[in-house]
């Protein structure tokens, strides 16, 4: 599986992303490991020390897609001290490197330099040219590969024969050493000892430096794609053309009347096959489709109803499943989100049959929405994109970034301000699923049915209160909201206040209704137990301590058929009722009896005194 990683892109801006991969395999002992590496720079250091030991060697292979526009420019080994050394390779091409690493060396890893290089045709006719020879005794030469009309230069085999003690070297750009041998050779009538080093180069200019007698033999190879009209190609009599099938993991070849040969030249890819060219050779190939899986920032399969992928052929696929393409025909994909083309995907290198492409999209399912307490909230989220509110719901995806965010809560669109939409982010909506109030009522309100009325926004709740201390849970309260609270007694407002919701939850509140002392008295200062105090819709019978509605200043005292208007602005209400009460009447009768008796006695005394005095001023004193 190949995973391509995209750069983070701003929302709704077009960009082009080219994906290149290199496939790496390491064989050590009886084991092997294979990995696909995303090429993000022109230098790759691949550690292999963990697979290397003093007792064994490591076989290292790496290859690029032959249709890629990248090439392996050079290869060398990195030692633990940081130095680089070159060793002979088994096969080398800008698309493929195979080498055996001697583990007796202090090897850290393999260094690959990556650069631009044109694609190879999957099938081509390869034609070796006549040898080019040079003799060099001191200094350097720059040998150029000649151009041949109608043919394309592919590589050259270079043999450097250094007569001992001469030394020679070749520049290593797009060049690799294949082998070195020491042998006796005949030069004219002279038999001498020489070092023979064979190179393969894909450069058309070769710089060779020598110190001593050196012979250089260059054999260029050219190619023409099989798709051209090779029947009309005129070849020289000395040419020995051959068919080169470069191949790829997704290509399957079959051929008839063809002879497989080993021409002694490296393979362009791990699947390169060489055939003898004859007019009767029939080659057929089949292309296996490439499966492309799309994953988002969560590294899970993307399912985005608002995202579509368009291929070069014009096919449109909703980004809710896999996509299959013909890798030889269609390697460019365009991602369109919400109707706008936002990114072009160029699959420049596909060295396997399955590609997993990472698109930096955030799906709604990867974003958590909670209240301030961390409780999940099922709220519809809207993103302001260029002045349009885009519903961010299940099945939709957006690029990560900063957005103006809105939430639909309880039928109202709430502006959450700007926030980041990134993978695994938690979007907090400033509401409490249950905002808890610990209510305390220090004053008792006897004979009243107490309730707490809550109002905020378009919401209204009534909670019965049965104790002087009680917990109330208010649903979906928004931080910063103004909550109106009223303590009701038999429907009358006893106390009210406004609360601004903060991040404190639960919150403790004390509801302190106004309480008065009602003391109805008769003329003799006796309490009247049947006197009624009426304030608004509330009625209290007899003296006592009662809760009264807020903003009440006047009440009525009812006793029998009499009604008295009283001022209740004070906390103690003394009311003098013009009555004597039941005890007062009895006392009044006694007083009246005594007064009657005194009047009678006074009359008697006055009569007796008149008879003894003989005049008006006469009176009788009774001792």
Q: Could you explain the architecture of this structure?
A:
This protein has 623 residues and is mainly beta. Among the domains are: 123-245 and 251-286; 363-429, Immunoglobulin-like (Sandwich); 432-510, Immunoglobulin-like; 514-579, Immunoglobulin-like (Sandwich); 586-623, no CATH class. It contains one helix and 52 strands. Strands 12, 13, 14, 15, 16, 17, 18, 19, 21 and 22 form a ten-stranded antiparallel beta sheet that branches. It has a five-stranded mixed beta sheet with strand order 2-29-28-25-26, with no helix packed on it. A five-stranded antiparallel beta sheet has the order 4-3-6-10-9, with no helix packed on it. A hairpin with a 2-residue loop joins β28 and β29 (340-347). 29% of the residues are buried.
Q: What is the first-to-last residue Cα distance?
A: 141 Å
The best one-word shape is rod-shaped
What share of residues are in beta strands? over 45%
Are there runs of 5+ residues with pLDDT below 50, and where? Answer: 1-13, 610-623
Q: Averaged pLDDT, please?
A: 84
Describe the largest sheet. 10 strands, antiparallel
Structural class: mainly beta
Radius of gyration, taken over Cα atoms and rounded to an integer in Å: 53 Å
What is the helix content?
under 10%
Number of helices, counting only DSSP H or I runs of 4 residues or more = 1
Please report the total strand number as a whole number: 52
């Amino acid at each position: 599986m190949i995973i391509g990683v995209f750069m983070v892109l701003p929302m709704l801006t077009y960009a082009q992303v080219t994906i290149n991969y290199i496939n790496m395999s390491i064989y050590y002992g009886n084991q092997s490991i294979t990995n696909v590496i995303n090429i993000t720079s022109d230098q790759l250091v691949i550690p292999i020390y963990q697979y290397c030991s003093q007792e064994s060697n490591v076989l290292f292979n790496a290859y690029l897609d032959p249709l890629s526009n990248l090439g392996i420019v050079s290869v060398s080994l990195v030692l633990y001290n940081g130095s680089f050394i070159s060793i002979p390779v088994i096969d080398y091409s800008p698309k493929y490197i195979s080498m055996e690493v001697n583990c007796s060396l202090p090897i850290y890893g393999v260094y690959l330099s990556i650069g631009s290089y044109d694609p190879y045709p999957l099938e081509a006719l390869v034609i070796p040219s006549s040898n080019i020879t040079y003799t060099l005794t001191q200094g350097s030469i720059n040998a150029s590969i000649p151009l041949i009309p109608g043919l394309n230069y592919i590589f050259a085999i270079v043999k450097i024969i250094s007569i001992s003690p001469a030394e020679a070297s070749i520049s290593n750009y797009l060049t690799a050493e294949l082998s070195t041998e020491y042998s006796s050779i005949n030069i004219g009538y002279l038999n001498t000892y020489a070092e023979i080093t064979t190179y393969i180069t894909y450069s058309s200019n070769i710089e060779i430096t020598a110190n001593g007698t050196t012979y250089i033999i260059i054999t260029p190879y050219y190619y023409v794609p099989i798709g051209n009209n090779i029947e009309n190609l005129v070849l020289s009599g000395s040419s020995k053309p051959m068919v080169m099938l470069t191949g790829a993991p997704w290509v399957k070849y079959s051929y008839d009347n063809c002879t497989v040969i080993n021409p002694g030249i490296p393979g362009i890819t791990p699947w390169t096959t060489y055939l003898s060219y004859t007019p009767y050779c029939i080659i057929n190939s089949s292309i296996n489709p490439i499966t492309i899986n799309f994953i988002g920032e969560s590294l899970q399969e993307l399912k985005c109803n608002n995202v579509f992928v368009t291929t070069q052929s014009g096919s449109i696929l909703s980004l809710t499943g896999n996509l299959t393409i013909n890798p030889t025909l269609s390697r460019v994909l365009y991602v369109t989100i919400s109707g706008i083309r936002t990114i072009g995907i160029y699959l420049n290198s596909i060295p396997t049959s399955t590609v997993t492409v990472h698109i930096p999209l955030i799906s709604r399912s990867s974003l958590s929405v909670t209240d301030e307490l961390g409780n999940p909230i099922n709220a519809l989220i809207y993103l302001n994109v260029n002045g349009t509110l885009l519903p961010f719901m299940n099945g939709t995806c957006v690029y990560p970034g900063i957005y103006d965010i809105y939430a639909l809560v309880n039928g109202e669109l709430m502006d959450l301000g700007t926030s980041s939409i990134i993978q695994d982010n938690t979007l907090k909506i400033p509401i409490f699923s249950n905002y808890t109030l610990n209510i305390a009522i220090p004053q008792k309100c006897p004979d009243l049915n107490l309730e707490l009325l809550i109002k905020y926004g378009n919401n209204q709740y009534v909670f019965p209160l049965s104790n002087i201390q009680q917990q109330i849970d208010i649903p979906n309260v928004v931080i910063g909201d103004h909550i109106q609270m009223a303590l009701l007694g038999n429907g009358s407002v006893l106390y009210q206040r406004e609360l601004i919701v903060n991040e404190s939850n639960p919150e403790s509140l004390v509801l302190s209704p106004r309480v008065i002392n009602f003391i109805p008295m008769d003329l003799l200062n006796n309490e009247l137990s049947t006197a009624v105090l009426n304030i608004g819709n509330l009625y209290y019978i007899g003296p006592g301590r009662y809760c009264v509605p807020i903003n009440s200043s006047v009440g009525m005292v009812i006793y029998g058929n009499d009604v008295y208007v009283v001022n209740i602005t004070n906390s103690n209400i003394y009311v003098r009722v013009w009555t004597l009460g039941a005890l007062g009447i009895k006392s009044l009768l006694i007083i009246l009896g005594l007064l009657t008796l005194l009047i009678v006695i006074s009359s008697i005394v006055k009569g007796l005194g008149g008879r003894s005095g003989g005049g008006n001023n006469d009176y009788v004193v009774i001792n």
